Amino acid sequence: MDKKALLALVLSAAVLLIYQLFFYKPATQQKPASQEKGSSAVVNPTVYPKGSSVEPSVQSTVSKQDTSNSPISDISLDGKEQEISVDSPLYHAVFTTKGGALKSFTLKKYHETLAANSKLIELVNVEKTMPYPLALSFPDSSIDVSPVAFYQTDSTNIDLNSTRESRRLTFAQTWPGKIKIEKIYTLNPQKYAIELEVRTYNLSNIPLNQEIALYWNQYVNPAVKEDSYGHVGPVSYVGKNVERESVKKMESNKLLGPDVSWGGFESKYFIAALIPQNPSLTSIALSKDSSNMVSTGLKGPKNIIPPGQAGFFGYSIFLGPKDYNILKAQGVGLENAIDFGSWLKWLAMPLLLCLKFLYSYVHNYGIAIIILTVLIKIIFWPLGNKSYKSMKEMQKLQPKMQELREKYKNDKARLSQETMALYKAHKVNPMGGCLPMIIQIPVFFGLYKALLYAIELRHSPFFWWIKDLSEKDPYYITPLIMGATMFIQQKMTPTSADPTQAKIMLWMPVIFTFMFLNFPSGLVIYWLFNNILSIGQQYYINKQA
Asked: Are 210 and 302 in contact (CB under 8 A)?
């Protein structure tokens, strides 16, 4: 292959990699709401969530004065907060009567660091004056219902560790002569997903104009530097497109939708997602206030609840890791929250599934990466052979190419014509060395995405000093060895007659070593062993020649 073409190929790959790392930000699309603000639609207020235990026959009317049918016993005092602890094999949650919301949610299987005394991952982060996540609001409602109102509950603590059955946690509050609201959480000990049913009873003498909104509120510390490799902030799935918002660049208010499959708040490896029952009728409202509270709210359609009638609204709330299999099982496209990229997803996902399959046998993701590298090299072995042979043939033509350059240095058209004739006479394809390498570049970027965002590698050890494959090598040993193997590979590759180009190519190992210093060690291990296998293949081709 012509060294100019090879140089262009390598530099292009480097530019793409640098762009992906430091400059690429997923595009966000702002979609207009289906209804203008102030418009209303009369809909059937009785909306039954999937799996709801409420039958049509028991919800038709509600007494305006009598609320004794409520399962709530008044054991919490208005104006005083009461906490309800929920402990399961997967998480420990703390709910509060303040807004009937979520005060804490820690994941038992995930720690912040590798330290023995490291804290568990906490998905809730709000300041004292802020409303908690899962607070309700009724924008444009004819009745003012505060998201920080104190609810009543009959539960204190719920232990799910010794049962496989789901348990219910109910909050209720009544505004006499106006409205009664019940929030019923269904907690499954074997799932990260929590079901939420909201019941609103119209106790007034007039129709209730209502638009329900469920919010996930999160405090974002402005002093914390944004992660270069992972997004921390609002994320949503609108119209089958993932929308991400930079917290620092957020507008004060933004409305997306309708057709919202889910929305919430994410970090690199974890997500809190609100999933509506009716995506086609749901919009998502994003906002950030002066106290750096970021709110992601699911807004349902405007509806009218007649006097004595009730409205029922269903949600699922996923609070957990970005594990592909777990997210996929939700059935709402939540697996798209893993940032594989729109044009690399079709490669990254199969590679990740292959990696998990190999891990199920070897029980070490570092070894699984090496095996996967070998398998990829075997698949591309014929293409690699063709590439190296083509470069070898191009090297043989360098003296004749130099003669043509000297002979036709003032006639570029004739030089091009004679060069192509030379290639044809010796049956050499100038692109023969490039095309096989170009085909392999998407595979590298797909695996790069898979290894960079796979939670499976988080805190997963390899050997000796590498305790976490998702973090950089603490001693930079693997990047330096990788750079050395790249230098050896360069020396074995057929060289150009142009000394300037040859010197530029020798700088590539230095550039790549510098780039890989802060890469996750899992990705460096892949590139290192890929280089070792390429050196072996190059040696084999050179020996045959």
From this structure: yes
State in Å, rounded, how far the first CA of the chain is from the last one.
16
The answer to whether the CB of 486 falls within 8 A of the CB of 512 is: yes
Q: What would the mean pLDDT of 362-389 be, rounded to a whole number?
A: 87
Map residue 261 onto helix, strand or coil. Answer: strand
Residues ≥6 apart with Cβ < 8 Å to 39: 302
Which range of 103-117, 141-155, 279-293 scores highest in mean pLDDT? It is: 103-117
Residues 6+ apart with CB under 8 A from 282: 257, 258, 259, 260, 276, 298, 299, 300, 301
Tell me whether residue 297 is in a domain: yes
Q: Note whether residue 50 is domain-resident.
A: no
Q: What is the pLDDT of residues 414-457, one digit of tens each?
A: 888 888 888 778 777 766 556 666 777 788 788 888 888 889 99
Question: How large a percentage of the chain has pLDDT more than 90?
Answer: 39
> Can you give the residue range of the structural domain that contains 512?
3-21+346-544
Q: Which two tokens stand for residue 56?
A: 């049509």
End position of a domain, from candidates 338, 370, 404? 338
Quick check: is 30 in a domain? no
| Whether residue 485 is found in the same domain as residue 354 | yes
Number of neighbouring beta carbons within 10 Å of residue 356: 16
Decide: helix, strand or coil at residue 135: strand
Same domain, yes or no: 483 and 369: yes
Assigned domain for 124 exists: yes
> Which residues are within 8 A (CB) of 320 and not within 5 positions of it... i.e. 6 or more apart?
90, 91, 107, 192, 193, 270, 271, 326
Q: How far is CA 406 from the centre of its chain?
A: 55
If DSSP states are collapsed to H, E and C, what string results for 426-449?
CCCCCCCCCHHHHHHHHHHHHHHH
pTM of this structure: 0.79
Same domain, 442 and 475: yes
Query: What tokens does 23 get?
Result: 């400059």
